[in-house]
Design brief:
With about 210 residues, the protein is α/β, with parallel strands linked by helices. The protein has a single domain (about 5-205), classed as Phosphoglycerate mutase-like (Rossmann fold, 3-Layer(aba) Sandwich), CATH 3.40.50. Helix content is about 40%, strand content about 15%. It has seven helices and six strands. Strands 3-2-4-1-5-6 form a six-stranded mixed sheet. Helix 3 links the parallel strand 2 (about 55-60) and strand 3. Helix 2 crosses helix 3, helix 4 (about 100-110) crosses helix 5 (about 110-120) and helix 6 crosses helix 7. It starts with 6 loop residues before the first strand and ends with a strand.
C-alpha cells in the first residue's frame, strides 16, 4: 500500500487595506487591496502549476483570510472544498495598538517599546496577545483539528495570518522563541510542507515569485 500524501500548505492572506496603510490590524477586519486580491489568485495559480490538489481547507474568522482562500481555490479550480473557519487561527490580537499607525505608535510609546511588543516572543501590547499567547491558541487547534487529517492523507490548505502561521512554522521548522520573532512570512506566498508519519517535516517548498 502506498504512503499517503501528507500535504499541508500554509498561505498568509494577501495584502490588506491596513497592511498598505501601515496599521496594526490584529482582530480588526479590513478587506484585501487590489494587490492582495492578485496575490491570492497568484498563490492559487502557483499551487496549480505545481500540480497540487486539496481535500480540505481551514481559515480564520477574519474576512481577509477567508477571501484569500476563496480566490486561491478559484484559481486552483477547486471551488467546492470543505472549509472550516475558526478564530483559533486569527491574527495575533494587538489590543490597544489595533487600528493605530505603526509610526504613530512609536511616537506615543517610543521606538524601543513598540519594537519589543512587535518582535519579542512573550511581551504583549496593552490589552493584546504576545506571540507566545498566539502560539498557545493556534497550536492546540492545529494538533487537535488539522494535523490528524494531514497524517491520514487529507491534503490540507490553510489560509491565515502572519502571526498565527508563524506559530505553526515555529513548530514545523523547529524555530525557538529566540529565533521565531525574526521570521517574516510574505503575503500570498504558499509554504508547501509534506510531513512524515511522525508529524515532522519531510520536505518544504516556498512558492515565491
Amino acid at each position: 500500500m502506498s504512503e499517503p500524501d501528507r500535504l499541508l500548505v500554509l498561505v498568509r492572506h494577501g495584502q490588506s487595506e491596513w497592511n498598505l496603510k501601515n496599521l496594526f490590524t490584529g482582530w480588526r477586519d479590513p478587506d484585501l487591496t487590489p494587490k492582495g486580491i492578485e496575490e491570492a489568485k497568484t498563490a492559487g495559480h502557483r499551487m496549480k502549476a505545481l500540480g497540487l490538489t486539496f481535500d480540505v481547507t481551514y481559515t480564520s474568522a477574519l474576512s481577509r483570510a477567508q477571501r484569500t482562500l476563496k480566490l486561491a481555490c478559484e484559481a486552483l479550480g477547486q471551488t467546492s472544498l470543505p472549509e472550516t473557519r475558526d478564530q483559533a487561527l486569527n491574527e495575533r490580537d494587538y489590543g490597544d495598538l489595533s487600528g493605530l499607525n505603526k509610526d504613530d505608535a512609536r511616537k506615543k510609546w517610543g521606538e524601543e517599546q513598540v519594537h519589543v511588543w512587535r518582535r519579542s516572543y512573550d511581551v504583549a501590547p496593552p490589552g493584546g496577545e504576545s506571540l507566545k499567547d498566539t502560539v498557545a491558541r493556534v497550536l492546540p487547534y492545529y494538533c487537535q483539528h488539522i494535523l490528524p487529517g494531514v497524517l491520514d492523507g487529507r491534503r490540507t490548505l490553510v489560509t491565515a495570518h502572519g502571526n498565527s502561521l508563524r506559530a505553526l512554522v515555529m513548530v514545523l521548522d523547529r524555530f525557538t522563541p529566540a529565533t521565531i520573532p525574526t521570521i517574516e512570512l510574505d503575503t500570498g506566498v504558499p509554504l508547501v510542507y509534506r510531513l512524515n508519519a511522525n508529524s515532522t517535516v519531510l520536505s518544504k517548498i516556498v512558492l515565491a515569485a
